[in-house]
Design a protein that fits this description.
Elements: E1 2-6, H1 9-35, H2 43-54, H3 82-90, H4 99-110, H5 125-135, H6 140-153, E2 158-164, E3 172-180, E4 185-189, E5 196-198, H7 207-216, E6 222-224, H8 237-246, E7 251-255, H9 259-264, H10 266-271, H11 276-286, E8 291-294, H12 301-338, E9 342-346
Antiparallel strand pairs: 1-9, 2-3, 2-7, 3-4, 5-6, 7-8
Helix pairs in contact: 1-12, 2-11, 2-12, 4-6, 5-6
Length: about 350
């Protein structure tokens, strides 16, 4: 009797199927990824892809209060970072019974001695706070997140607004809006540019009131410094107004203020020392990075459609890549199994 190895014909057939599926999905992945190549050329385009991933189908809603907050708006449910709670207590940033005064005091605390050297920080909340207050560094996003964290630690509810100049890409700005419980209304504050807008009577404006004033042009809001001793974001008020006016068509709201939750997420911490884009991707994968909702207007319909198309391509590229990997593993496993022949008896 002589043993021979007989190939598993069913296994070989299955392996061919998995191989074909792998090749097809790989081609789809390459096509979809190739369509994304133009968005890999600079940081502004990377931000556009991030925003497309975070884009939610619902438009930005703003006529709500903390008491009527949409359930989908992400907020921190746990305790603030001990450092931030300590900063608020140690510097007496909380003004009892006056939320707006508290917000202004936090803003002044971040504008230390008028020092401003610029430069994006793009780090965790601890390092971001220290570099803002000790080195005068930070871009608008750094200031907005740090302000949100300190306001939360002080018991103040905030929400972040943003706008762009390039179709919801990386060229734009972000600022905060504070809920003043005593006056039962929202008030806008732009700590990075060191101002908050007021009307002719000196009453602080909400973000939408400020936007509507710029849209109509009937009255030009006054810009009051958060800290009169600190360097202004714009030397001339006219330039600040023009800057905000140019961003009016592309306003959007970050659908969450959960800066502590995102900062402490495992994937965010793990990828924080690699690259900012990977860190943010970790937050998206962990589900802690807030989504964005666009303030829809007839002016930004083409930009919205472009973002939804980009989002679809990202989803297709990701899904095709995942399936390609699955099919490849299945092909390898089936191919290996098909090579194991069952011993068969054969007469000599």
């Amino acid at each position: 009797m002589k043993s021979s190895m007989v190939p598993d014909k069913a296994g070989m057939s299955a392996a061919k199927v998995w191989l074909r599926l792998f090749l097809v999905s790989t081609v789809l992945t390459l096509i979809a990824a190739g369509s994304l190549a133009p968005h890999l050329r600079n940081s502004a385009e990377l931000v556009r892809m991030r925003n497309a991933l975070l884009l939610q189908s619902e438009p930005a809603a703003y006529d709500w209060t903390p008491a009527t907050m949409p359930g989908s708006f992400a907020v921190d449910s746990g305790e603030p970072l001990p450092l931030y709670a300590d900063i608020v207590a140690r510097n007496a940033l909380r003004v009892e019974g006056d939320d707006w005064a508290t917000a202004v005091k936090i803003g002044r605390h971040l504008l230390v001695d008028g020092m401003r050297t610029g430069g994006a920080i793009q780090s965790d909340l601890t390092q971001t706070y220290r570099r803002i207050t000790e080195l005068g560094e930070g871009y608008c996003g750094d200031f907005a997140d740090t302000f949100t964290g300190l306001a939360s630690a002080a018991g103040i509810f905030t929400r972040p607004w943003a706008f762009s100049f390039d179709g919801f890409g990386g060229h734009g700005h972000i600022f905060n809006e504070v809920w003043d419980a005593q006056q039962a209304r929202w008030i806008m504050i732009d700590v990075f540019n060191n101002f908050y807008p007021v009307d002719a009577a000196g009453r602080p404006l909400s973000a939408m009131a400020f936007r509507n004033a710029l849209l109509t042009g009937e009255t030009v809001p006054q810009l009051v410094p958060v800290d009169a001793l600190a360097k202004p974001g714009f030397k001339y008020v006219e330039k600040a107004i023009a800057y905000y006016r140019s961003g009016l068509p592309e306003w959007y709201m970050w659908w969450g203020s959960n800066v502590f939750e995102n900062d402490q997420a495992f994937l965010v911490r793990m990828l924080g020392g690699t690259h900012r884009a990977l860190e943010q991707l970790g937050g998206i994968a962990a589900g802690t990075y807030p989504g964005i909702r666009i303030l829809e207007t007839s002016q930004n319909q083409p930009q919205r459609e472009s973002m939804h198309w980009l989002r679809l391509r990202l989803i297709v590229a990701t899904a095709a890549g995942v399936f390609s990997l699955i099919f490849f593993v299945a092909w390898l496993a089936t191919r290996r199994g098909s090579k194991e022949a069952a011993p068969q008896g054969r007469p000599i």
